[in-house]
Amino acid sequence: MTVCAIETAAEDDGAVSRPGFTIAANGAYAARLAGDGEALFPERWTLDGPEPYAVPLPAAQPEDPHAQVLPMVDGRVLIARRTGGRYVFSLLYPTGPRTGELPLGAIESASLRLLPPSPDGACAYALAPGEHSTGVWRVAGGGGGGPEHVAEVEGHCGGGAWLDRTGRMLALDRRQDEGGPVKAVAVDLERGGEVTPLLQITEGSEDRVLLADPDSGLLLIRSDAPSPGHHRLGWGVLGSMMPVRFPECLRLPDAAVTPFAVQPGQTLTPETCAVAVRIDAATGSWVGLWRPAGRRLHQLPAPRGWLAGAGLWSREGVLRLPYATGAVPCGLARLDVARVEAARAGTERSEGSGRAGEPGGARGGTAPEASVPRPAAPSAAPERAGGEPSGPVVTPGVCKPVPLQQAPLTGRTGPG
After folding, report:
1. What is the SS3 string spanning 322-386?
2. Which of 21, 41, 197, 339 sits CB 3.0–4.6 Å from 310 for a disulfide?
C-alpha cells in the first residue's frame, strides 16, 4: 500500500505539474504513455510480483500526447483521449497479442484532468473546468452506463488529494471566480459536492494541499504564508488545531522540493511518517527522504532512468522508485529509509558533530554523489499482452481540517 502523488515539480505560482507515470491505489499496477516521438502507446506495469514487468497496450493507431492513463486495481488501464471538444474514456486490458477496449462514454469539455486514483480502487474521477465552476466526474466504476457528474464546485479548482480511504472526501485547491488567493477545500462526493474550508493559514495566503495520508492524518501543503510571494513546503495534521510548520530543511536554494509519496500505515503518528520528495534543480532531479520528527532532509541520487516524481512506499519504510532505460525497460530501485538514516547517523558520529548547515546531504541545487541502491532485477523475457513478465512554525494556526471520523461534517458552505 502507498499514498502516491501525481503531483511533481512546483510551478512559479505554487501549483504543480503532472508526471506521466501513475500508480494504482493498491500499489499493484502502474500505467504510463510509453514510446518515442509520435509513436506513443499505453503501458501497464505490474509491481506486486517478485519482479516488475511491463505490458504494452497499443491501439490501432498511436495515442495523442495529450491522452491520459490511470491504472485500476484490477489491472485494467483507463485512458482519456481528447477528441475535438470532448474527452472519450475506455478501459484497456491485454487479450493475448492484442489490446481489448471497453468504451465508457465521453464528456463534452474543452479541457479535463484525471484525478489521482481513488483510494477504494473501484472508481476513477476527473476534473472538468467550466467558465465559473469546476465539475467533478466519476468516469469509471460508477453504477450508470457512462461518466457521472457527481459534483459542481464554484470557482476554478486544481490539485486533488484524497482525505479518506473510501473515496468520499476530496481536497481541491480552489480560486473563487471573483479572484483572490487559492485555498484548499474539502468536497464531500456523497453529499452532492458539499464544500468545507480545509486550509486557511492567513486571509491572503495561497494555501494548497499536495498530499494527504488518511492513516496518520499527515498533510503536506504548499503556502506563501511564511514568506509572501514565495511558496514553501509545510506540514500539518488533518483534524488538528496544531499550527502548520515549514521546516527549514525543506527550503533549498535554487531547487524545488515536491513531495510525491507518504509511508502508509503509521496510524495516528504523523511525525513518524517517511515522506519521499522530488528535488529539481538546474543540475537535474534527485530524491529526498524526510520525516517530520527527523527534522532533516536526506538527499540521495535517483536511479538512472527514474520516472521522476513517481514512487511507492511499503508499510515497513522501503521506497520503490520506478525507472526505465534502454537496458532495463521496467525496473524498481529500492531505498530503505531506516538504513539511510542509520548510515547518515553513523557518518555524522564518525565526523564528530558533523558539518553545520548541511543536514542530510548536498546543499541547494547540487545533486548528491552517493551510490544508488541496487535496483530490482528486471525480467528477462518479453511479455505479450496477457502473457508472462517482460523484460519554522507560522504563528497563524491552520483552520481545523475536516474531521473525517465525524458525520455529519460541520462548517459546511453547501454545494459548490
Report:
1. EECCCCCCCEEEEEEHHHHHHHHHHHHHHCCCCCCCCCCCCCCCCCCCCCCCCECCCCCCCCCCC
2. 21
